[in-house]
Amino acid sequence: MKMIVKKTSVFPAEQSNVFALLQRFDTLAYIAKPYVTFKNIDGQTELVWKVDRSFSFIFKMFDFIPLGIHIIHVKEFNIDNIYTNEGNPFCPIWNHRIILKKTADRKTEYTDEVEIGAGWKTPFVYLWAKAFYSHRQRKWIKLLSKRSEEKAQQQDEF
User: Fold this and answer.
1) What DSSP line would sit under 83-112, residue for residue?
2) Residues with Cβ < 8 Å from 54, sequence gap 6 or more?
3) CA angle 46, 60, 118 (to 5 degrees)
4) 142, 145, 146, 150 alpha-carbon torsion, rounded to 10°
5) Which of 18, 85, 98, 155 has the most beta carbons within 10 angstroms of its beta carbon?
6) Exposure of 16 by Cβ count < 10 A (0-12 exposed, 13-18 middle, 19+ buried)?
7) Helices 15-22 and 122-156, packing angle to 10 deg
8) Is residue 10 within 8 Å of residue 122, measured between CB atoms?
9) Mean pLDDT score across all residues of the chain
């Protein structure tokens, strides 16, 4: 059994700025907390997402429930579309697509679309994922709003 979670928000930033942040591991770590923590097995924090590369993480829910090693295999990574095949022992299928679209008012329409396959656990993982992606997108908006405010303050100083 597989289920799909889809969540879309409009972010207060240009597409290029959102994409630049998507390329950074610290962005993933920030937007996922506290629902999920990722610790790179190699201890590296300066990761560069690249097509046809796999990345392995110690994966914990709420920073204390271990769910094993989570593997992210990058299939596509460009300014309009990011697609990864992911999974861990608890949820073997977690195929994640991020779609970025420019809006007329220099904002970004951001969509997370995730195909989930966890056997009999799928409906429960689906419900958790719905809450998780709502949380992630709220954290994105908070992050981008903060960056926008900081930029405006810097401009006011001149």
Assistant:
1) EEEEE-SS-SEEEEEEEEEE-TTS-EEEEE
2) 71, 72, 73, 74
3) 110
4) 180
5) 18
6) exposed
7) 120
8) no
9) 92
SS3 state of residue 24: strand
- pLDDT value at residue 48: 85
Cα dihedral value 19, 24, 94, 135, nearest 10:
-80
Give the integer Cα–Cα distance in Å for 10 and 124: 27
What confidence tens digit (pLDDT) does each residue in 91-100 have? Answer: 999 999 999 9
> How big is the chain, counted in residues?
158
Report residue 123 CA to chain centroid gap. Answer: 21
pLDDT band at 64 (very low <50, low <70, confident <90, very high): very high
- Which long-range contacts (C-beta less than 8 Å, at least 24 apart) are formed by 106-109? 106/14, 107/10, 107/11, 107/12, 107/13, 107/14, 108/10, 108/11, 108/13, 108/14, 108/15, 108/17, 108/18, 109/8, 109/9, 109/10, 109/11
Residue 62 · residue 78 · CB < 8 Å: no
